[in-house]
């Protein structure tokens, strides 16, 4: 419990592990309550689980040294599985998430500078402008207005990604992307165990690919217009991701060779970044609002910091280093509710040893932030929301690879600096004026649908802060 948490026991948070089951009925109930029903309690207690299923050998790695071995030290032995790459290719085309080997390396080299800390700092004003517009929308609603915060945050983060790395506020592109993503995730949501069967899996994947291709025609045309407009104005364009992609266009016939990118590769990366870059951040923000609504002491401490540091003005990039508790809230929320609850499955190319166990050649190897972040050996009282875990002086007590919201190694999230800055700036702006409350009939059920979402959305009411009560307690 943090120093400021209320003394009476707060309600359990959504997604908490149910108590150990003794009877078969309890076990059945527990499976229903779990985000990943296949995971047993042992997953949250053992450093590594190695086994064999009808699909072959597998390993789940829950130990920081093991995670380092698989994702960093011996990453070349653990590429993403062909099925995982194909899944992302069906969703986004062949962008970073769905490619591998030399193609992936070339694309990552071209795109990385648009996400480095200096570029991200330059996106600050575009982020604050997008949040300011959003705040104006909230201000136009009556006090106590109902919102689905999950949808609301998606609309905001879509604006942010459009205005930062693409420097556009084209409503056409933004609306089409929003629609395409929900269709894509719907298609992904029907993923199940059948996908892993040799023939049936192939057939299901092809059907999914056809559905997605049919639904992306309008989107393709809008993205092509976005690219054409930038090509026509390159001389005066900002040095954002879109400019970098367009400048990398292969002049030798658009095949994507010679170190450049083809028109199709540019389209795929634009869609990948739009999708990967807003759904995740929106999900994190939704969970943050939910957590703050359930933990009033942490919410009050957050707002006290905002009052002291910002004194009512909008936050800017330069304020970030001083918003320490705000950052702690964001980091702790990403521990309990990591937007990517499971990393892509990897395949062991050669036999390896991890945590003293043999990982056979060909094994599927999984690292799950959802499990790692709630693991009983790695966290004290893991289901408790405690932003002080991320206090500056606590960092040295934490194993580096026990906390992986953005993955690690060569395939680490390209947008992690942007995501963190954006989340903090959005939270700091909106929480200064608003203290959204959970609606009494809200049903909070986490669901893993590529990213960690809320099965029934997040029904909240938009309450303005009660200035006198909160500011002076
Ligand atoms: C809270 C926000 C975010 C979270 C939690 C998150 C999480 C992750 C994780 C865990 C991975 C690695 C997956 C793996 O190893 O299997 C990843 C990869 C990736 N993320 Fe993010 N992400 C976030 C925001 C963003 C943003 C803002 C962007 C872009 C603007 C982005 C773009 C990508 C891309 C392109 C990859 C693939 C990188 C590669 O394979 O080279 N993400 N993300």
Characterize this entry briefly:
The protein has 473 residues and is α+β, with helices and mostly antiparallel strands. The chain has 18 helices and eleven strands.
Structural overview:
- This protein has 473 residues and is of the alpha+beta class.
- The protein has a 4-stranded mixed sheet. It has a 3-stranded antiparallel sheet with strand order 3-11-8.
- It is 48% helix and 8% strand.
- A hairpin with a 2-residue loop joins strand 1 and strand 2.
- Helix 8 runs antiparallel to helix 9 and helix 8 packs antiparallel against helix 10.
- The longest helix is centred in the middle third of the chain and has 19 residues.
- The protein has one domain: Cytochrome P450 (Cytochrome p450, Orthogonal Bundle).
- The chain has 18 helices and 11 strands.
Keywords:
473 residues, alpha+beta, Cytochrome p450, 4-stranded mixed sheet, 3-stranded antiparallel sheet, 18 helices, 8% strand, disordered C terminus, binds protoporphyrin IX containing FE
Bound molecules: protoporphyrin IX containing FE
Overall pLDDT score: 87
The run of helices and strands is HEEHHHHHEHHHHHHHHHEEEEHHEEEEH
Strand order of the largest sheet: 1-2-7-4
Structural class: alpha+beta
Per-chain topology:
Layout: H1 24-33, E1 48-53, E2 56-61, H2 64-73, H3 82-92, H4 101-111, H5 117-122, H6 124-139, E3 146-148, H7 149-164, H8 171-189, H9 198-215, H10 217-232, H11 241-247, H12 263-276, H13 279-294, H14 296-310, H15 324-336, E4 346-347, E5 352-354, E6 357-359, E7 364-366, H16 369-372, H17 416-433, E8 437-438, E9 446-449, E10 451-454, E11 459-461, H18 467-471
Parallel strand pairs: 2-7
Antiparallel strand pairs: 1-2, 3-11, 4-7, 5-6, 8-11, 9-10
Helix pairs in contact: 3-9, 6-7, 6-17, 7-13, 8-9, 8-10, 10-12, 13-15, 13-17, 14-15
This protein binds protoporphyrin IX containing FE.
